[in-house]
Design goal:
Layout lengths: L2 H25 L6 H8 L3 H7 L3 H21 L10 H16 L2 H8 L6 H17 L14 H21 L6 H14 L1 H5 L12
Length: about 210
Amino acid sequence: MNKKTDLRILRTKQSIRKAFYELIQEKGYEAITIQDIADRAMINRNTFYLHYPNKPDLLDTCMNELLSELKDAVVLCPISMNPFSISILETVMQTVLEHISLNTTFYYAMLIEEKSIYQFRAKMENIIKNKLNEGWNPDLVNAPLAISKELLLEYLVSAFMGIVIWWIKNDQHLPANEISSQFSRIVAYGHLKAAGIPVEDEYSPER
């Protein structure tokens, strides 16, 4: 296979995937037909089947490739939770947001639509959770956590994903570095202190 043929195949696959995600946004995954994708990508059905046997295979391929890119980007982030560093969490979130900004149509289709593909979200959450979990190295922890580690990870990942989805829904109206900085301060100081709201009576675990 020569280079020209390779490029033609690559362009065809890109056209198919672009059409697929646009259609998910417009009508939802379940309503899309192979003919819809072929028409939008300006190819015939036989060309589609040369690359993907069916719609579920196309979905799986798209999800796995996108998540693999995300994982590769996040893996490069430094991570340590002992002692906690605001800048580290900020780096992780900014990396995720910058990756999303390069693939906005894909992520919007996967995370925002009414019939969003929850399998994609669950896999994305696991990537974030595993990265944060790396930060708690048992050899570096001098004392046990004061709360359940599992609960803490669930809280962080849920908040993280909530911000990501909110950011996509609102057309990325704030820069990735600003979102990342503010989110990291909320995690580090709590939402009231991070917002500059006075706290009358702080919680004491001895009460």
